[in-house]
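W.,

You were right to be curious about this one. When I first looked at the sequence I had no strong expectations either way, so I just let the prediction run and decided to look at it fresh. Below is the sequence, 330 residues in total, followed by the output.
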Amino acid sequence: MPTFAPAELLRLARLAAGRQAWSEVRALLVAADDVVLGSAELTVLLAEAEYRGNRPGEASTLAARVDALPAGSAPEAVRSRAANVVGAAAFTRGQLADAEGAFTRALERGRAAEDDLVAARACNNLGNVLSLRGDSDGALARYRLAIPLYQRVGQPRGLAECHHNMAIVARGEGRWADADDLERRAVDFARQANDARLLSMALVGRAEVKLASGDAAPAVVLATRAADSLRDLDDAAMEADARRLVGDAEIALGHFEAAAQALGDAQHLARRAGDALIEAECTETLARLAAARGDAALASQLADTALAAYRAIGSPTAMRRAEALLARVR
């Protein structure tokens, strides 16, 4: 790897990040760590690359350095991005209170910097925290605040994420048609952004709607397509979620061996990514597989493990779901 002057390194890293080429960003910056740690923005770029590479611990350590800098020592937009990474890493590890605090700092700093993009990201992320806590109205309010900000800066990638997140809320309320319409819009925005990862995310969302509304066969097809794409993109967390959904749909179809294979793969990927929520969801789905196979003891054990994980994360909706499963299998 050639040696670049700091200004050229920053230019190249920004260009790669703009293309979502996070492995390229990481390769550039890891080779120049002495320069990186002397620049707040380069440190944040490396933190973002580490997070996208399924290394939330490394991402948090790097971003926390910039997040903790006093006001005025780095641009507010850069400090906002740092707080967003700290929050995203905490969210991945199931630490919702820490995530909410970091995303709130990110939003305040983004507004202070009059940077609509970083403020929109913080709003969207705060919506995710509220959604996981079961506050649908609060989550939707945050997503609806983010949408005009993303529109103002012409950011289809962010619009895809927001519409996907609103679809999750609609799905949780049993509004299948609304959820599917929102996921279709997310697909459109992901295509505008030419972002294969977001397109796969929206396909998983559509598969969730299909399964929840009782149409398991197309759910398997959509989720498998998304999972294979995410494998090629080396996104372990999102692939884990897609494989979990494949397993869930296979249970509904009575294909228990296929379900076990998909769920085993999903659990392994979730652990590799350090994603506490997806791992808990895999455990819950494995409990339902055990129940479908008639193994009440294993189903009860797995459901209890999932419940404990949801309790640690602080997701009342998921806790109620696991409690209902426990009541059925005991």
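Here's what jumped out at me. The radius of gyration is 20 Å. And, maybe more interesting for your project: The mean pLDDT is 94.

Coffee later to discuss?

I.
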